[in-house]
Amino acid sequence: MNLVKTTDDEAGRGEGREGREARGAGARDGVEHGSTSRGEPGDGSGAGGDGTPGGDGLDHEAADLSGTGVTDPESDTPVPTHEPLLAARVHRPADLMRFLTGILAVAAIFVLIGFAHNTTSGLEDDILSATDRIPRFLISFVGLASSAAVLVVPLAFAVERLIKRDGLRVADGVLAAVLAHGLSLGIDLWVAKAAPESITLALATVTPGSTTLTDPVHGYLAPVIAYMTAVGMQSRPRWRIALWVVVALDALAEIIGGYTTPLSVAVTIGLGLSVAYGTLYAVGAPNVRPTTEHLLTGLRKVGFTPHTAHRATDGPENTHRYLVVQEDDRPPLDVHVIDREQLASGFFYRLWSRLRLRGAAAHAGPRTLRAALEQEALISYAATSAGAATPRLIATSELGPDAVILVYEQIGGRSLTALHAEEVADRAMATAWRAVSCLHARRIAHRRLTADSLLVTEHEVTCLLNLAGGEIAASDLLMRMDIAQLLTTFGLRVGPERAVDLAVEILGAERTADCLALLQPVALSRETRAELRHYNRERRAAADAEHTEQLKAGELSAEELNELPPTDLLSGLRERILAKVPQAPVEPVKLERLKPKTLITVIAAAFAMYFLIGQLTSHPPTELIAHANWGWAAVAVACAVASYGAATMQLTGFVPEKLSYQKTLLAQVAGSFVKLVAPAAVGGVALNTRYLQRSGVRPGQAVASVGASQLVGAVVHLLLLLGFGFVAGTQSTKDVTPSRTVIAGVLVVAVLVMVAAAIPPVRRWVLERLQSLFAGVIPRMLDLLQRPSKLVEGVGGSVLITLTLAANLYFSLLAFDGHLSFAAVVAVYLAGNAAGSAVPTPGGVGAIEVALSAGLTAAGMPYSTALTGVLLHRALTYWLPVLPGWGAFAYLQRKGLL
Known about the structure:
898 residues; mainly alpha; six-stranded mixed β-sheet; three-stranded antiparallel β-sheet; 33 helices; 13 strands; 59% helix; flat
């Protein structure tokens, strides 16, 4: 939150006047801060009356401003306002979450039907037997009345909305109803023509007095539910109650009358709600964020006299901020507006944080506007009472049913984000540490000590902003996380030495050292993690360039280079703290209960196990195993062993320096153990790079060598895929043109590459990864061209790796009497392995098995044979080498080569 000076560039009237001194609540050492010279609103003089533009955080682009003023109801004079145009519609994450929940609920109903058909049939019988005593005429009357009401209630609601000039919501409802009706027809057709019998019997029944089946999904009820939900029924409880009452009565009458089933009603309701929320998220819901006019009206109601209002840079979690100048020389205001859209904006991130982090480290956030208002006000009052330098909270108020406001005093200054390293004075950092110390003395955790939460005044006093995410009665863990966060924030700007020295001076060595175990990325904010990656990347590039020059000049040896400390910031902070407190605990605190890699692995493994168990149950391979040809299996084992020799050739071929063949071979065997815990093709890269560095190869050259081997391997993989795919497609015909399958596959890959390249975030992500992986590859390849034997060795190793592993699959299939041409097996292996390795699971577990089995089946092999052969192939190339890989890994570690 930048608290800055405001000006009015529009009206061109009035005279400049000197600003006022704003004293931050609890400023340390009696130092005043926040002094700003403020031009008279409308004089065009800018901050300080010197003609400079307005302060930080203001929007001065004319194209981004809407409206020229708001009329004061008391004086009928326009109040100038500067506000960016608000989007007419917003895509609310809550709608997406409800849509996904509805889809999962409908899917769960279908799963329930498939696994518990007898239970669902019994439920229907129980309902019918319980209603046998109800008079038929009463059932008929209720059915007729509710059917009419189901159509009348939406019509009446539409009239009410149109009278209130809310036609856009009605249009949203109509669109949702049309989509729900079309989807209902599609499901009805699927159930009638292609669905399993269990689903048909659960969702449809024979119409009384005829032989036709009822509709599985109600063609009129689903559109009505979708319409009423999309049109905004949730915020009107009376209409909502009326709708669900008539829906329940109509559904009950239909079930009793034998015209539908309970599960059909459940699917209908789930479908209607899902379509409604999906439509709202796709087209966007009307924006309910308050405008400046509403804000000024709300300020007058609580006793303020606003003269001008400027939209400032949004605060954390998209909190809207307005800088307001008052009449009659009253102090300026910094107003925070919290609305329902803001509460929903960070929903998915907060949910993921709750799942990922342990207990106190996670932050749930408020669920209602009232809770958000009370939480921020409580933290602000507590911080002021503690004596920390923070803006003083003056007033709070509701701003209609969809927003609340918090009014703070306005303090002049610049945020730490806007300051260069040389502008960050020791005094400013010291006052920040003192303010944090005041909070911690009262057990208050800030939880967001990022650069935009530190406001440096002209007196070099730092005020703490953005208190909304703080906590009272905080645990020691949260306060230690505060210190780790602030150390990193300062370290990113002034370096680790200066940041730690100031912290030790103010907090003391022991208290500073308490955060050592929390100097890890997961303990930091999202913004800080992004800054940290950028900082480390720049520092690493600069260090590599410097070390290369030193190596060329003979000022540094390869052994000395390997002993140099890491250049990342967190390591620098840890080393500086340990220099001050050598006995400080260094073991990181385990904050994560669930890592993204673990979650992906569990999901992929669960899917693979479900798929494989289902296939093994339906195609038991017992007979195939009993009659297996273990001679071919032995040949497959030999091919798997030979692949490690090929991998050794590939790596040594791209390293001009001399390497020990035996140790390099052990490194490739150790890669079998690393693949167990790292995504396919990632663990091997890291292990080989580390091995080369420990073997005396310079870090930059080691990365370039591994990158060159990966690049050549990828090219060889693609060329072999095209070549063997061409051969496999022409073996059954005399035509030498490639098969349609190969052409279709190439076109699909080309289209996917073009689509990925057309999406800027995806394109940037791919380019960054390729740039980091293949940095220095071209110069390395030029060096290798001067030694053709090395290049032949590397390229030959790349080819042999593919051929030996594909041969392993070929002979594994032959062991179970799986006859397919070698070219076809190689093509399937290359395509399936590439597709499976794209899934970020250790060793491509699950994905590779599925891809290879499906590919071999599509090539004409019986599925049970293909699946059994693939499982043997994966056992020989992935699972069985884990134990020798662990032994090789441990040996190389003892020798200092990993």
